[in-house]
Write a structure and sequence with these properties.
The complex is a heterodimer of chains A (about 90) and B (about 160). Chain A is α+β, with helices and mostly antiparallel strands and about 90 residues long. Chain A has 3 helices and 7 strands. A 5-stranded mixed β-sheet of chain A has the order 2-1-7-4-5. A two-stranded antiparallel sheet of chain A has the order 3-6. Chain A is globular, with a radius of gyration of 14 Å. Helices cover about 30% and strands about 35% of the residues of chain B. Chain B has 4 helices and 10 strands. In chain B, helix 2 runs antiparallel to helix 3 and helix 3 crosses helix 4. Chain B is globular, with a radius of gyration of 16 Å. Classes of the chains: A alpha+beta (about 90), B alpha+beta (about 160). Chains A and B meet through loops of A and strand 5, helix 3 and strand 9 of B.
Chain lengths: ~90, ~160
């Protein structure tokens, strides 16, 4: 365990797309979480804890997919400092 | 193997000729063009705005094309997807596959569209007389893509 002298944090760059961008009122933001490595699950939990549109849109069971550095990942995937973490509503192209 | 994301329209004839090149091994060319309907979910659609996730979109399309190349005996493939605001009857997406024989060309073309619909980061927003709305994903699209999952279901 790191002590207070070496405590670290992970900063990720969140990107919100399509419906989520409109619901959250922003295209993205940096998010700082304590630790050397965090999971997608921890990021989603931190966002849900804000309540409002974040809690509603990211509620368990809502179909939101996550891409880390432009690749779709499972929610238990690790995320590292500097990663770009995008939240994607179900895609509707074609 | 080429993928392009663009606001400009495309000319399918020109793209097909370019993909075929002078390749004498080509015996089959399968093409799919998706276009904008004027009615969706019982509402008149005045326009459709397509947005995507720049940086990821091209990678996702390239991965889908690479997957098709691995699964089917095809010679070449092209995917063009438009973004921006489109009107009814406008072209949205073009998929072209060349192969020596039609079966592989048909299958690969359908596979590319089924995977694109469920894996490429594009989103449609419709403008109707009632306002704008994000288009909902369809369960039928997931089912279409799942048909290609191993172990392969009968098709």
């Amino acid at each position: 365990m790191p002590d207070s002298q070496t405590a670290t944090a992970v900063t990720v760059n969140l990107v919100y797309l399509a419906r989520l961008r409109e619901a959250f009122g922003r295209a993205g933001e940096p998010l700082i979480l304590p630790g050397n490595e965090v999971s997608v699950t921890a990021i989603l939990a931190a966002l849900r804890a804000r309540g409002g549109a974040f809690a509603a849109e990211l509620a368990p069971g809502r179909a939101v997919r996550v891409a880390v550095n432009h690749a779709l990942v499972a929610v238990d995937s690790p995320v590292r400092d500097g990663d770009e973490v995008a939240l994607l509503p179900p895609v509707t192209g074609g | 193997m080429t993928v392009r994301v663009q606001t400009a329209d495309f000319d399918a004839g020109q793209e097909i000729a370019s993909l075929r090149g002078g390749d004498m091994r080509v015996g089959a060319v399968a093409t799919f063009i998706g276009t904008v309907r004027d009615v969706n979910d019982a509402a008149h659609v005045a326009s459709l705005t397509l947005e995507h996730y720049p940086g990821m979109t091209e990678k996702a399309l390239e991965a889908i094309v690479a997957e098709a190349k691995g699964r089917f005996d095809i010679l070449d493939a092209l995917v063009i997807h438009r973004v921006g605001t489109l009107a009814p009857a406008d072209q949205i997406v073009l998929v072209v596959v060349t192969s020596s024989h039609r079966g592989e060309a048909f299958d690969a073309c359908r596979f590319l569209m089924d995977y694109l619909k469920t894996r490429a980061p594009f989103w449609k927003k419709e403008t109707t007389p009632l306002g704008t709305r994000w288009v909902d994903a369809r369960a039928s699209d997931d089912e279409a893509a799942a048909r290609w999952d191993p172990p392969s279901a009968p098709r």
